[in-house]
Amino acid sequence: MATIDPSRFRSTLLSIVRYGFGRTMEQATKVDIFNSVCFAVREHIIDRKIETEKRYADNDVKRMHYISMEFLTGPLLANNLINLGIYDECRTIVNDIGLDFDDLIEFEPDPALGNGGLGRLAACFLDSLASMGMPGFGYGINYDYGLFHQSIIGGYQHERPDFWYNKSSPWLMRMSGEKAMVPVFGRIEDSEDMVGEYNPMWVEWKLIVGRPHDIAVVGYGGKTVNRLRLFSAWASEDFDIQIFNEGDYYRALEDKIRFENISKILYPSDSRDSGKELRLVQEYFLVACAVHDIVSIYLNQHDSFDMFHEKVAIQLNDTHPALTVAELMRVLIDLHFVEWDDAWQITTRTLGYTNHTLMPEALETWPMHIFKKVIPRHLQIIQEIDRRFMSMIKEKYPDDPEKPRRMSIVIDNNGEKNIRMAHLAIVGSHSVNGVAAIHSELVKTRLVPDFYDLWPEKFNNKTNGVTPRRWILRANPLLAQLVCDTIGDGWILDLGRLRELEAHCKETAFLERLLMIKRKNKVRLASIIKETTYIEVDPESIFDIHAKRLHEYKRQLLNAMNIIHIYFQIRDDNIIPSVPRTFIFGGKAAPGYFMAKLVIRFIHGLAEIINKDSKANEWLKVVFIPDYRVSLAEKMIPGADVSEQISTAGMEASGTGNMKFAMNGAITIGTLDGANIEIAGEVGEENIYIFGHKVDEIESLRREHDADRFLNSSPALKRVMDAVRSDIFCPDEPGIFKPLYDSIVHGGDYYCHMADFQSYTDAHSRLANDYMDRHNWAVKSLLNIARTGKFSSDRTIKEYAEEIWKIKSQI
Ligand code: KOT
């Protein structure tokens, strides 16, 4: 671990304030101070970054490149200090100067360059790679606008832009002289024969310039510093001059603006396909910049492509970067004159593809005409890949004429041709993985069974994980301290060692300390709730938290239905609950997702009525904390008694919030879906509340759906559904919640709210009863902490490294 020389740190800091920002300490703003502290910390990071790069180059190591449209890093100052091992020292020095260190830490804005699970997973992976000393790097887009900020007005979600670029992050280092030139648009001069004999002519293309910006990724212990490279799009100067010289000044400017828009915004749809041309250009831009960079790094140390797949692994984070298949082929064939067959070997041996969703609406397909316009040469290459693949399929399955249609990359949909990105990614990779055991099975048996039949050896599972450095050490310092006091600090890099805590599950003093820590975290959360919503909540009540993107399959509405059920029991049935409960929500809805936004409005409707009802509000409260983001998650998760993981079985690929809550001692109420199944397997069935239909039951449930049967057989459900339809929770806006009722009662209840209602409410009653026995609850909580070591992203990354990437630790 590093140390810092206090007087040197202090003088560096003062001189950055003065010479970097032109101010004395007295004049400096909070932004100046924050940036200066980060710059002073950067000095420590950069020395190690340079040393790491030298170590990798000297050993000519195999490198893994993780290409992802999203990296949801969250604030970096605290984590960098923790990983460097200088958090406490730095805190003392900064406070001694007369500044407020804790305030500065809280001041850092979240870089929100991701929507949710997929982007946050990428950030956890980078932390694990660096912490284990592995040569693994991220490639992404330096969006000017990250995920929107959410505010709530009259119960409705409003979106405000997140112009994080304006805040000129001190962590972003612009790397001049390493730009990528990316051809786009234009046409193919001769489209007849495109391989082998001669190179086709891709003409009249325009050039986008990709400028790299690096964020250092500091591994725990500070030995290894990798990088996340984010590209910004610019118009090429040369190209502008040409049009300017033609005299068309305005057209030249329009083009310039058009190109610079490419890295302007992150698309805010989580698990949904945007289908916009600009999105495809973004995907291509990222892929082209990354491939350019990866090939340049390789060619720095090698003069042929013979060793490429032994020195380079590339992982595609879902299909968003699937164009890497075509771009790597193009670069090898057109720029380096590699023969098609060799190029194909290199490409498939290099690439791996991770699938993160089975949901049809999230599976990317692009109309061929957009490809033709944006990347005509890539279209040509994809068509050739498909042609060869189809002839292989026809030869292998001569008796199944439907196979080609089911498996082709290019598909004819009533006259319009589409490109199926998942098929492109599977055909072009040597490894295809899902992100939890059940999900990986469903990928094989339901999503792409034909591909599994053809290449069973390609398919594998890599259950997700999360980094304990951010999600325990940073988010829950009190718990981290208790664990260190009890079993030492070995768990930070070997989370399985948390099992050693089990030995203390009978020690009352230990359990008391655990309960006290939870209480403190709840008090901290209660004060955030007060600040952001003006609602007062009781830290003695059960903090039941449902925090994640709003989506019908995640069933925040089922949670709301149970709340209504409890409310009516208190109000109308005079049933006093065993324990007071606070239901806490957080999460953003995609701006165009009507139903998800309506659920937010509904939760606010519930809060408005229930929190004001004096008969109920000492037993039941509902709060929605706006603008859920990484920094807020860091405060919500440690304050949870109960973690809601209630997706319809088969629909949540894995989930990672479920892991974070459990390792912070929350008890899960959840369905047998995604990684919940594996969490249940680890913690044991007495330490989790599992309810609901299983994945094999869902299909027949849907087929045999009969709303009346459910409503007539359950008066409790009927009462709840009647309330959804009525205006009880929207007295001033009658009728607004009708679509929620209709989707469940008249719309076939695709997400099985009614079918799972009874077992969900039962599970909640059991949980509330169990909570009263504080000792027993503390044991459950402890066992959740002790038994969730499997869900460290270090374990996940080791599996990827050994089984797919073949990369090694360099420390
Ligand atoms: C978004 C758009 C298209 C395809 C996939 C997505 C996607 C999937 N975004 N986030 N996910 C989530 O990824 C997490 C990390 O693997 C999973 O834990 C979670 O279940 C997915 O929903």
Keywords:
33 helices, alpha/beta, Rossmann fold, 811 residues, 10-stranded mixed beta sheet, 6-stranded parallel beta sheet, 2 domains, single chain, binds 1-beta-D-glucopyranosyl-4-phenyl-1H-1,2,3-triazole
Task: Explain this structure.
It is globular, with a radius of gyration of 27 Å. Strands 1, 2, 5, 6, 9, 10, 11, 12, 16 and 17 form a 10-stranded mixed sheet that branches. A 6-stranded parallel sheet has the order 20-19-18-21-22-23, sandwiched between helices. With 811 residues, it is α/β, with parallel strands linked by helices. It is built from 33 helices and 23 strands. It folds into 2 domains: 60-75 and 110-429, Glycogen Phosphorylase B (Rossmann fold), CATH 3.40.50; 468-797, Glycogen Phosphorylase B (Rossmann fold), CATH 3.40.50.2000. Helices cover 49% and strands 15% of the residues. The relative contact order is 0.10. The model has no long low-confidence stretch (mean pLDDT 95). Bound molecules: 1-beta-D-glucopyranosyl-4-phenyl-1H-1,2,3-triazole. Residues 116-118, 121, 270-271, 318, 356-357, 362, 435, 464, 652-656, 674 line the site of 1-beta-D-glucopyranosyl-4-phenyl-1H-1,2,3-triazole. The modification N6-(pyridoxal phosphate)lysine is found at residue 660.
